[in-house]
Amino acid sequence: MAGILSLVWFVGSVLITPFLMILLCIVFLASIGKSLGVRRLYVKLLLIIFEFGRANIETAQKGSNAEDTSEEDEEHIEEISPLNSNATNDIKHLKTPNGLKKPNNGYVPNGNSVISRDDKLILVPEPPFTMHKTDETTDLSEAKDKCKDYDLCNIFDYLKAGMESIIEDQVTSRFEAEELKNWNLLIRTNRRYEFISWKLTVMWVCGFFVRYFFLFPLRVTICFFGICWLVITTGLLGGLPDCPPKRWINTKSYLTAFRIMSRSLSAEIIIHNKEHRPARGSVCVANHTTPCDVLILSTDNCYSLIGQSHGGFLGILQRALARASPHIWFERSEVRDRHAVANKLKEHVSNPKNPPILIFPEGTCINNTSVMQFKKGSFEVGSVIYPVAIKYDPRFGDAFWNSSKYSMMQYLYMMMTSWAIVCDVWYLPPMQQNEGESAIDFANRVKSVIAKQGGLVDLVWDGQLKRTKPKKEWRERQQEEFSKRLKVE
Amino acid sequence: MGNRSSLLLREEEIAQIQEETGFTPNQIERLYSRFTSLDRGDCGTLSRDDFLRIPELAINPLGERIVNSFFQDEGLNDRVNFRQFMHVLAHFRPIKKNKENKLNSREEKLRFAFKMYDLDNDDMISKDELLAILHMMVGANISEEQLTSIAERTILEADEDGDQMISFEEFCKALQRTDVAQKMSIRFLN
């Protein structure tokens, strides 16, 4: 026992110096915002390893599944053409509320689909209002003709749509981690992890040691440094009166703190279109995957944050931030009071010296495959909106925070033991509410821009469905739609 | 980590379900993964609430009826296990020529739809049963009298023996020209 202890002691004392050197080096580079390209190399190396792993799994599976595939193939050649159904289709929800025609109304078949769904058979909460309003004048007579007698087969489309939604739906899957096509050598992502081949097992074990015994302690220490930096600098700055030098120092220390913290996730952030970086005194809206979105965006620009006051770890950060620069934290009791929040927002934006305020209008974390309904609140302020799209590369580690399953600390632990966080950030050209455009339409317009840039599915559903049940009115809207097509005398 | 339950599906179970429903092992595993993610309580069975938590299904005018179709077999049981789940879904597999279609023949599909109407399971669709469906479909948008007249007319058109009800045979006849194979089939991928 004593022998082992002294060995550990010896190894520890030998390794501690290079470890500290690396640590200091990383923290220093992070604080001046420079990179030696180590992370880029690391990511490239990981890709090569994953590719090797994929090839390995495929050859392993080919051996075992050779018999079943031959017989099944014919089944999938025989398909039903979706076009045939147009004429008799009863459920037509081609357009989203903003009237924009989207060929893939929410539905993008990915490699993990079980079924292929017809767009027209997917029910959405708000069937097209605008379509009917505009068509009414011109096609009134035509619309009358389209009404049909009730037919016993009218239920078929609803029946099929219902069954399809049981097999695969647009919403519930957005609140769970995205399934990966290929295993990334993390146990948590593989649905059926088991012994595949000895090569893979060796690779996984090596990866495990690197992640848990090298990266993890390093990252925790870096993160600790970052937080200390933030707390100390904001504490010092909090004592100064508001003046231009204070704002300048604050910006610098803010960026430094978040750059250091981003290294603790080995975040490789690729920022596009820097010319559209959100300006002071404006609103910046982004899609929301994880609380780390803030960290990712803050490595390049100083933001004011808005949100509910938290306790614990997040609370420490929130209080630290609030000391040095204007942020809007409200209590749980105030959340319902939309007016108070809106007023605070307006007040903040009206001062051109304030940093841009960062808002996630979805109001909840989505698994980064789609963008859900934007709450209109932030679009009612009337300021310039800078949309930002964030897309994570799920192969290196799933950034999505499934808050109903993991606590913040569990989530951070998982993030720090993942390979890396690799993401693209696109600054998009500023947008402004058009004359006569409602806040909801404007929100939808911004949302579609973000979805398009980030390669995300543009959904009209409310992200709050994660916790709440769908509204009754949505079903009533469906019933209304059907009644419109039914001929009555 | 939460997906570990998918391991609980044993080879024999897959083989059995494949035999009974015609789904491929791959489809069965995928649907099982879906089944477990719908199963919030992690108890291996689904309740009505588990189904209705799917927003698209909850806003479907026939949502509750569709969920009910999963709970018909076992009478009093108010939970569905994976096998029952698969049996219901199997009705929606596409019809294949030159192959045995057990649960997904044209007749089985029609039978399934018929049961959606036939609430009391007496193999007859009465006017009240038809009205109940119509109510679900239109909500409060069409008046009671108008709905009654629609129901009466629909029955009149389909009814051949003059008993003011639609039997399964009459139901099939009325839907003779409907492309049931297409409308009642889901395109499963592999």
From TrEMBL, chain A:
- Molecular function terms in GO for this entry? glycerol-3-phosphate O-acyltransferase activity
Any one cellular-component term (Gene Ontology): endoplasmic reticulum
Residue numbers spanned by region Disordered: 61-112, 470-489
Annotated keywords? Acyltransferase, Lipid biosynthesis, Lipid metabolism, Membrane, Phospholipid biosynthesis, Phospholipid metabolism, Transferase, Transmembrane, Transmembrane helix
Q: In which pathway does it act?
A: Phospholipid metabolism; Lipid metabolism
Residue intervals of the Phospholipid/glycerol acyltransferase domain: 282-393
Q: Where in the cell is it found?
A: Membrane
Any one Pfam family match given in the protein's UniProt record, by short name: Acyltransferase
* Ranges of compositional bias, category Basic and acidic residues: 471-489
Identify this protein by name. Answer: Phospholipid/glycerol acyltransferase domain-containing protein
| Lineage of origin | Eukaryota, Metazoa, Ecdysozoa, Arthropoda, Hexapoda
From TrEMBL, chain B:
A molecular-function term among this protein's GO annotations = calcium ion binding
**What CDD domains does this protein map onto?**
EFh
Going by the entry's taxonomy, the superkingdom of the source organism is recorded as Eukaryota
What SUPFAM superfamilies does the record point to? EF-hand (SSF47473)
Looking up PROSITE patterns in the UniProt record yields: EF_HAND_1 (PS00018), EF_HAND_2 (PS50222)
> What InterPro entries does its record include?
Calcineurin_B_homologous (IPR051875), EF-hand-dom_pair (IPR011992), EF_Hand_1_Ca_BS (IPR018247), EF_hand_dom (IPR002048)
Q: Which UniProt keywords apply?
A: Calcium, Cell membrane, Cytoplasm, Lipoprotein, Membrane, Metal-binding, Myristate, Nucleus, Phosphoprotein, Protein transport, Repeat, Transport
Subcellular location, record wording = Cell membrane; Cytoplasm; Nucleus
Q: Which GO terms describe its cellular component?
A: cytoplasm; nucleus; plasma membrane
* Biological process, per Gene Ontology: protein transport
Residues in EF-hand domain copies:
105-140, 146-181
Recorded family membership:
Belongs to the calcineurin regulatory subunit family. CHP subfamily.
Query: What protein does this entry describe?
Result: EF-hand domain-containing protein
Species this chain originates from:
Zophobas morio
